[in-house]
Amino acid sequence: MRNIIVGTAGHIDHGKTALVRALTGIETDRLEEERRRGISIDLGFAHMEAGAVRFGFVDVPGHERFVRNMLAGAGGIDMVVLVIGADESIKPQTREHFDICRLLGVRHGLIALTKSDLVDPDIVELVRLEAAEFVEGSFLEGAPVIAVSSKTGEGLDGLRSEMTNVAARVEPRKVEGGFRLPIDRSFVLKGFGTVVTGTLWSGRLRVEDEVEVYPSGRRLRVRGLHVHGGAVEVAEAGQRVAVNLAGVEAEELGRGMTLAPVGWFSSTTVVDSRFDLLGSAHPMKHRAPVHFHAGTSETEAEVRLLDGREAMEPGTTGHLRLMLKEPLLLLPGDRFIARMFSPVVTIGGGEILDNRPPLRLRKPAALARLLRLSNMDLGGRLAAFVDEAAGGIEVPQIVARTGLSEAEVRRVAKQAGLVQIPATPPVLISKARLEVDQTNFRQALSVYHQQHPLEIGMPKVAAPVQGPLLDYILSTTNDISIEGDLVRLVDFRPQLKADEDEAKTKIESLFREAGLAVPAVNEVLKGSGIDANRARTILQTLLRQKTLIRVSMDLIFHAEAIEQLKSVLSAKKGQRFGVPEFKDWTGISRKYAIPLLEFMDRERVTRREGDQRLVL
Question: Nearest-5° angle of CA 14, CA 83, CA 96?
Fold first, then answer.
């Protein structure tokens, strides 16, 4: 059975709640004040089944003072029933609600002319014509217009039938990837504990899932799920869901928060967007403050016009940046509404294009980038995000920026021709960027070899690329070699002059002949026959080649002497000994004994136990 979320829209007292009650048998005015005053103040919810469709209704308040509550429910709807009272026709909140539906990108719906029993048939037909004219050029142009009476039941069957027809054209919500459930209510249910409700925008939510609350980052466990009054093990996108959460008090959660998978997403305070300013609005100035509504969230935001204008003209579309006062979980494709501060009226809305825009670009470059993004398909946007990240970008970061699952990211990346670097986590990079990084790496190595002709290679930590990208280049490139912690071009060899070659032989001989009673490093360098700087470079080369081994800052031994010492100790496996015994075995003084024993501890040849050591 398909799940469709239906939103009501229309002016106060045009019969939205009565219509939902007549269709479903459910009273959505749950607050005592709502029943006493006869108007909806907050969101109400109901459901019905018609054919193979389960409709979940979000009944929104029509009074202008409660439009912010209306916005909290409008973000997750699949289709709208625009309610127009046949006795009053189109009124101010009819227009504002309809503007909000258009700005939120609602694509499907129909029109219900309520209270048709209160007026003559010719009045109903006149209002029908006015409604058709009102929606010309919008997504409701040509939509069914059904006259109904919630009191007599006239037209309700026809409305249900038309709703089913419209529902067949609604694109199914995405059940793959990460779930998002914007919270619209939080309360305590006796015998259960804390319960939150919301429309599941995407993905699947299961009992015992661990969820993260955005933007706080708190992690909770799902104790139980209810969909339309019945317990379920799994809730899917497009359903109204009640979530029983363990380990949290109801007052700690509230409208504007979002439940999502742990670690998938990250909140943001800066978004780039495409924005439509209503023709009824005043010009919107650069840095203008607005109320920002997305999902069930509301915060203040500051408008940043990227095209250099001082103000955006009414009835135009532009690209702009919004600086949010509070962090929100927002993804590309999410729709939002902007309202003025005074008077508090809807002035426009749009679509998020990027939830992690680069902040250091100048306005012209930022605008040009945003225009490119707005004209790209998913693969193109993915490639653009990847190409902007030096050294590639980790797949979880793409997930957080797009809302795609890791499997979807890999699939789209493959179609877009991106290189997928095996790592934990995997990294994506463009082929062009990879080629540039490889070329720069080779050039850096060439320069390093020229500047350090005596050294075997460049330390890995000094390479111009790092992390998984470095490992990938080294594993897939034939002309770059790795030796321990050094990298070099494969055709490079240290170029020693005649005196340097003699010095290398002399340095090595001095350490070899010394055995375990090695000379001071400075004495060896002075006796090498060349200047100290070149001699020290040769010494470092011998150390990197493991010909010499540094035991402490002041003591360097020949590798053969260290191996002979290990052989002496291995013959005494399991034996305990002290420093005096060690000095007797080796014939060396305490000056050498203590550093050598500490080195053998680090090499796990021995283990210190108090004043003694055990040969392992």
Answer: 90
Total Cβ atoms within 10 A of residue 242: 22
Q: Does position 323 have pLDDT exceeding 60, yes or no?
A: yes
Q: Where in the chain is the domain with CATH 1.10.10.10?
A: 510-615
- The CATH number of the structural domain formed by 268-370 is 2.40.30.10
Q: 262: Cβ–Cβ under 8 A, 6 or more apart, which residues?
A: 210, 211, 212, 219
- Residues, the chain: 616
* % of the chain at pLDDT higher than 70: 94
pLDDT tens digits, 503-522: 888 999 999 999 999 988 88
pTM given for the model: 0.76
Token pair 């809807």 is found at 346
Per the CB < 8 A criterion, the answer to whether 264 and 251 are in contact is: no
Listed residue (250, 252, 279, 247) closest to 95, CA to CA: 279
**Look-up of token digits 């999410």:** 334
State residue 243's pLDDT score.
93
Q: What stretch(es) of the chain map to CATH 3.40.50.300?
A: 2-167
Question: What is the bridge-based pairing of β-strands 79-85 and 109-114?
Answer: parallel
What is the reported pLDDT for 7? 85
More confident residue, 392 or 275: 275
Q: Tell me which residue has tokens 């694109």.
A: 171
DSSP strands (E only) in 209-345:
210-214, 218-227, 230-232, 234-236, 240-246, 258-261, 268-277, 284-285, 289-294, 297-305, 311-312, 317-328, 335-339
Those residues with Cβ within 8 angstroms of residue 214's Cβ, 6 or more apart along the chain or in another chain:
257, 258, 259, 260, 265, 267, 328, 329
CATH number belonging to the domain at 433-489, selected among 1.10.10, 3.30.420, 2.60.40, 1.20.58: 1.10.10
Average pLDDT over residues 104-124: 93
Q: How does 470-480 read in b/e, with b if 16+ C-beta sit within 10 Å? A: bbbbbeeeeeb
Q: Using CA of residue 150, residue 156, residue 162, residue 167, what is the dihedral sign? A: positive
Residues of the chain with CATH 2.40.30.10: 181-261, 268-370
Q: Looking at domain 181-261, what is its CATH homologous superfamily?
A: Translation factors (2.40.30.10)
Are residues 272 and 354 in contact, defined by beta-carbon separation less than 8 angstroms? Answer: yes
* 249 class by beta-carbon count within 10 Å (0-12 exposed, 13-18 middle, 19+ buried): exposed
Cβ-proximal residues to 151 (8 Å cutoff; 6+ apart), any chain: 18, 117
The radius of gyration of the chain from alpha carbons, rounded to an integer in Å, stands at 36
- Give the H/E segment covering residue 206: strand 204-206
Structure tokens at 355: 């939830």
Provide the 10 A C-beta neighbour count for residue 169.
9
- Alpha-carbon distance 500 to 536, whole Å? 11
Q: Is 464 exposed, middle or buried (0-12, 13-18, 19+ CB in 10 A)?
A: middle
- 494 close to 541: Cβ distance less than 8 angstroms: yes
- What is the C-alpha end-to-end distance of the chain, expressed in Å? 69
d(CA 609, CA 146): 91
pLDDT band at 72 (very low <50, low <70, confident <90, very high): low
Q: Are 148 and 112 in contact (CB under 8 A)?
A: yes
Residue 199 near residue 285 (C-beta atoms within 8 A): no
**Confidence band of 367 (pLDDT split at 50, 70, 90):** very high
* pLDDT tens string 339-357: 898 888 889 999 999 999 9
Q: Is 232 exposed, middle or buried (0-12, 13-18, 19+ CB in 10 A)?
A: middle
